[in-house]
Amino acid sequence: MKNVNKFLGIGALSLMMMACTTNPITGRKSLQLANDQEISAMAVQQYREVISKAKVVKGTTAAKSVQNVGLRIKNAANNYYRGIGREADITNYQWEFNLIDDKQVNAWAMPGGKVAVYTGIIPITQNDTGLAVVLGHEISHALAGHGNERISQAMVAQYGGAILGSATSGQMASIFQQVYPIGAQVALLKYGRGQELEADEMGLYLMAM
Q1: 22 domain-assigned
Q2: Are 199 and 140 in contact (CB under 8 A)?
Q3: Residue 65 domain flag
Q4: Helix axes 36-53, 146-159, angle to 10 degrees
Q5: Tally of CB atoms within 10 A around 85
Q6: Does this model's pTM top 0.70?
Q7: Which residues, including other chains, have CB under 8 Å from residue 21's CB and lie 6 or more apart?
Q8: Is residue 29 situated within a structural domain?
Q9: What confidence tens digit (pLDDT) does each residue in 65-100 have?
Q10: Is 62 a domain residue?
């Protein structure tokens, strides 16, 4: 039994090493065990639920700025990843940028490129440059795979090595809902200090690009 446990431990460690992802902009390494396509599919569903219940602002100067600035940063990221031969990392991203009428001073991004900005932050950003700081940060959370990292950390904490690489759809959905609360509560999501600092750094690089 001791040898079996040792073998399983080595196997789990090997899998975690293979699942270690290096951010091409910051160089930070992170454990990303979960399936990105599954995460993105759940994120799209969650995003659609939030948007369907929110008052989405269309056609205003602020709404157009959210769209334009978001797309410019997205295009800068695409060009950079293509230039270093890692375009496959973001091929399946489905970018979307919406302005939501809400007094909260907030913005957030879901895995796979679904982004929301609240009108409450617009007076603070003041212009496209200020908005680019916010959107660069949020887009970086998505590009850096921080959702996958948080889900992977939760998987290891809850299930240990036994689930590595073999989470059922039910287990994955349960963990996803813990990391990204249902409905409007998604606006309350918190990333770790290291992830926030990385999004700050990465976002400024993308903004400059």
Answers
A1: no
A2: yes
A3: yes
A4: 110
A5: 9
A6: yes
A7: 29, 30, 31, 32, 145, 148
A8: no
A9: 999 999 999 999 999 999 999 999 999 999 999 999
A10: yes
